[in-house]
Batch of 4 targets.
Target 1
Amino acid sequence: MKSNPGGGLVYSTDAGRMCPVCRKPVAGCICKQAPVAKTDGVVRVSLQTKGRGGKSVTLVKGVVLDALALAVLGKQLRAACGSGGTVKDGVIEVQGDHVDTLMAALQKQGHVVKRAGG
């Protein structure tokens, strides 16, 4: 068994890779099923260029969905924009300036949407 300096088990010869949060095998991780943090119910869409080499990325924050549903929504939004992107830490990132397109798509799905950051 190996452990990391933070104290959590990261690998077991019996079960393989371990989740550092719930300390269960990655295949049986219960973190993905954990309830999503409560927000004010407003989805915020913003544009960010800082720290990205001048390239713009549209961020979608505040969507109250579990990890799997958020990944599916991210894929739908990226397809609507015809662009790449990812989902990291509950934030959907879409490459390029697609604020208006994403706001329209989210409103069509019934979300309360606000533009954030100017």
Target 2
Amino acid sequence: MVGQRRRFRRRRALKRRLLPALVLAGGIAVVVVLTIGTVSQISPASSSYRRTVDRGYAALVAPLVVSSDSSGTDLMTLLREGPTLDRAKFFAELDALATSSEALAGQFNAITPPVPAATAASDCARSIDGRARALADLSGALEGVLGGKTGAGARAADEAGTVRSMSSVGGALESDDALWAACRRSLRRAAGSPRLVASTWVSDPSLWAPGPLSDFVAAVNGSPTLAPAHRLAITNVVTVPAPSQRSAAGVLVPPSAALRVHVVVADQGNVDEHRVEVVASVASSGAQSTASLGTTIDIAAGTSVALVLRALAVAPGASYTLRVVATPATPASPVVMSFSVAVDKAVTIMSVLPSASAIAVGKRVTYTVRVSASLTGLPAANGTVAFDDDSLPIATCTAQPVSRGEATCSVFYAAADVHAITAVYSGDPSRSAATSPPLIENVIRAPASSRAGTRTRAGNKQR
């Protein structure tokens, strides 16, 4: 009880201390709400309204101007170091400059109204938009003189045209700097005297003169690190069915009537490769290609493409040379990967059927073996079958021909016994050799009445 009373007193004291602070906070909140309501009612024509708008505009565009100046610095770095860069980095830097400037222009134009005086806002927007267009033109000109992404563009090595384009870019950037300066002056004279950050991209106009530009373009066009390098490679070829065995000579795949080829082609050069024809073919030993299938793909520099070609027709038991060729549309040489592929023979399935499951002594029985395979669609089986009785060859059936998938053996038994009959298949070009499961054949003695009848008929013949 004592503890409960103490806790109650502490809570009551805490409430007494917090009450003045809560009252003060509530008062401040009411004042803020009233102030916001009052400001929202200020006439757009009042000087207070214009001061608020102009200063707000300057605050909003300030970080965007910093980003714009950073792009200007990156541009000058690229113009200074460009001829020493590798082609992929050079193109990436150009793309990044053009893309970031376009995005910045979009952010600048997305600043919601109200905006400051029409002249100031227009000059600021035109300056940022103009820089984005100038960088896009510069990127196109420099990529063009290097032949574009493929190295074979229509403007490749057009140094004079590139110099003219870059000179226009330099003039446009100077104009954009002037527009930004005009925007700053207009805002400085406006209500509230907001100060915009200075932004100058062309600090030395002489760098954009025809002479320095000609030297720069010549250095870019003659740079060994920027020269197009075509390097296609076939990095992997996988067959389906997958190999069951591998050796230095090639691979062995399970029995199949079709071979599908998975190919990975890599562009290890510094230019994009368009319309690369990828063809897979199989050729049997000493013969022309039995199948050839292909497709056309585009590969960007530094990337790879995995593709699956349509199935090639093959036959079980045959050996082939699989050849995959990737041929670019450019003058670059095709690349080839080849290796031997042996297709395993189909597994033979055999069964032996007798003309009768039990026969009497002195009677003849015919055994029929049926030869099939684990794979459908094969040509008719051929070869021979040897019949064994208790693992010993049946003398009259050591090489029975297979016709329409069957072979037969006819046997006469002189004594009663039990026989285990098996058929041994020699195999053919498409099917493996095989031995059938044993068939148990019973040879029984003839009934007594049958034997007596036989003796009586024999005695009559003697008389």
Target 3
Amino acid sequence: MPDSLTERQAFMVLNDLPNIGPITLNRLLAELGGDPREILSATRRQLEAVRGVGPETSAAVLNWRTHFDLAREEERLAKAGATFITTRDDGYPRLLKEINDPPIGLYRKGDYLFGQPCIAVVGSRRTTLYGQAVARKLGAQLAQLGFCVVSGLARGIDTAAHEGALSVGGKTVAVLGCGIDIVYPPENLDLYRRIAETGAVLSEFPFGRKADKQTFPMRNRVVSGISEGVVVVESDTSGGAMITARFAGEQGRLIFAVPGRIDQPTSQGCHQLIRDGATLLMGVDDILSELNYLDGLHPKTASLTDEPGLLEQLMPQLGEAERKVAACFSGGGQMGVDAVAAATGLGASEVAAALMMLELKRLVAKRADGAFEARSPG
């Protein structure tokens, strides 16, 4: 048994073995005790007793040292200022754990820990000025409302969505279809660096792995898996964004599509999605409406007035502006945006964004007269 390996190192070894998919890796973990070191110390017979594991897979596990240089990979991590996180780490996206084939580990550059709900904004590399403008606006508006904008750092729509979020000081995450040390496209190097400074760049692939026809679909399932919903801004009928939308459907995520001109090839994919049941997106209010509707189908959550001290318990889960705004309702008061702004010293737009997020989290409710109050229990 490789006793000298830590659990994280063993996860890294398994994650980077060739030709072993995440479904097989998760099955091995489930059937061999959950400790990745147990997999690396298992016999061929034990490995091949697991469904889906044949001679090629077992050989890769048994001979992992010939495939993977752990010391070199850790040196690259340190040099890149990156980390390797596993499904057991707090920084691993919560929703991603729920999909059928989550990566057992992710390379991460940046310190963002996914404390905000995520919405993916994706689309064509060969985009129109209209598509770029829509993606940039959506990225900015979603970020202002407290969402983290997820995309793939590609040319076109992805780039515009990331830039929109950054333009308002919001959070954005880029998921790569290559190793985290490869910036593709190369002209997005500055964007890559800016995302890593305030958000995160993620990849499930080892250093040096170049993008190919296999890695991009794998990346797309992570983009949708992280997110509450996926917005397709522009895509032809066979674009990568359509693959992301398909994964979103399989994962039970919301799917939105932005309509475009009927004679524009990059609108055909969006129109197909709308025909197939995706929500036609006219603006961020459509996203908020869908999220609120789904939340109404969930069991009722606790409110600020449920019990003494609940607000204090919830505070660590809220952003700074949300905490200030939430405190205004701890005594059960009813206040409008202007009154909250006066009480907190925040700007009206900041208050409106915080109230929207507290409403999504079912902590406050908007009254018919436009004022807000703490949501009642039950």
Target 4
Amino acid sequence: MALSAAERDDLIYAKKLLESQGLAAKISTMVGAPLELGLNKLPQSWHGAIQKATRKSLEKALAVAVATLGEKENRPPTNQRHAVAAGISGAVGGVFGLPALAVELPLSTTIMLRSIAEIARSQGEDLRLADTRLQCVQVLALGGGVEAGDSNEAGYFAARAALSKAVSDAAAHLARHGLSQQGAPALVRLISQVAARFSVVVTEKAAAQAVPLVGALGGAAINTAFIRHFQSMATGHFIIRRLERLHGQDEIRRLYEKSS
């Protein structure tokens, strides 16, 4: 069945969101200086700390996804409320700087995940399913970019393909065992693959907080941009999944690549 005019508009909108300006460019505009200035100010030792904070945040996000996302009542997504909450948590980073990342990032990530789950539900997803909940976690990788040299995985569909086996294996594990075996290879593999992409954006956020700003106000603004970025990724991703349920993955990908 051919897409309706409204569905074609949705597809074009989703592509616009998924291929929009990256977070680094948005933050550079906000800060008024290239983000490289902040990246250069990050001590080498902080890269390890960022990786550790990212993994901790994703482990918490996975636990939240499994334990609570399916229990929320059915209502439209409240993006603004979550953005405000993330901004408040970001104010901590603005006041205390990089040392606060280990405390602030898990909180911000949990807020983002709940917002992503509401967006998923608004597009017809069933949050009672393990796969749907892990799709919410996967959004943190779709908006995270890739390291240098991984350009083949930079596109939306390429990123999904790279993560698909890890997501399906983790979903199968959770369906059988829940989180009783948190160190299971399927869960570790998913966390590692998502972390490799999510940490790129976390590093950009940390770099922006290393640029002299206006204290708490600057941290709040950066975190608001942070969650807005992933809300856009979630909206685009779950629109695509809704259209795929109706018309098939191959057809939607073909039309996606043709659309402008």
